[in-house]
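The following record pairs a protein chain with its ligand, uridine-5'-diphosphate.
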Amino acid sequence: MSRQRALVTGGAGFLGSHLCDALLGEGWSVVVVDNLLTGRRANLAHLQNESGFEFVEKDICEPFDVGKVDFVFHFASPASPVDYHLHGIPTLKVGSLGTFHALDVAHKYGAKYLVSSTSECYGDPLEHPQKETYWGNVNPIGPRSVYDEAKRFTEAVTMAYRRYHKVDTRIVRIFNTYGPRMQLNDGRVVPNFMKQAMLGEPITVYGDGRQTRSFCYVSDEIDGFMRLAKSAEPLPVNIGNPNEFTILECAQMVLKVTGSKSQIRYEPLPQDDPKQRRPDITKARQLLEWEPKIDLETGLRRSLDYFQQAVSEEASVR
Ligand code: UDP
């Protein structure tokens, strides 16, 4: 029997590259299409000589065709607040045009399809924790809207291709995820705090640090994606860790695992920064028998070597 072939858009990114590892590990062949706007070749360097792995540098905002595939994993998009502020229009384009093109590939080849969506669809949520049935509280014209509305549109196009073209679609709503291969300078809280702690610089807590996030270690997140890919669930599924921390608690945890003596420095809260975020994962538990296993302290400890190396590499090129 020939190998099943998966397309991973955004496969050079943090989550995309871990997804490639999981797919290859389960015997798939994988073709990545990525324009390297925020993804990095280094994330895929270990797969270069792997049989059944291909990398195509291409912007999916233009129509593309990489030949027959059995599954499309659409993961291309800037995803950190710093990245999508820097690349606002490309973020809107990849969520809209890029999504049409990824769905066109799935439609053409009769492939299954899974798209990465986000807890940002819930905006600054008035329902807590957030269930998949919550429609969200999103500012459509604020600075975060380039990402939030792109992803909400991504979900809308995906559901339309399901309804009108009978594409076999799935939608995962991803909550804050961390681990090796995150970009050191993408501005997200975990890489920022790890870098600052390792360099003995002040830990920059935005606002009063009482806003909350729920952090999922990357291996748990990928396990959730693989289970959803194998299911037939058409409606969005939250995949995230429901253990909620204030950002101040997160800072203290980073100080603990790094053994750093860095001080906390308070800085202004960015506009429309969600005050709270925690997934209700009842659906994933029941449907996928999925449950995150790795708590924040363990996950941060597992990430130490990666961040230490990233910090050293950055220092050596300065
Ligand atoms: N944050 C912070 N200091 C930093 C980076 C982020 O206090 O150096 C806060 C940010 O304001 C937000 C939370 O940490 O409340 C998570 O931010 P991140 O950019 O990681 O992702 P978000 O969940 O906002 O998309």
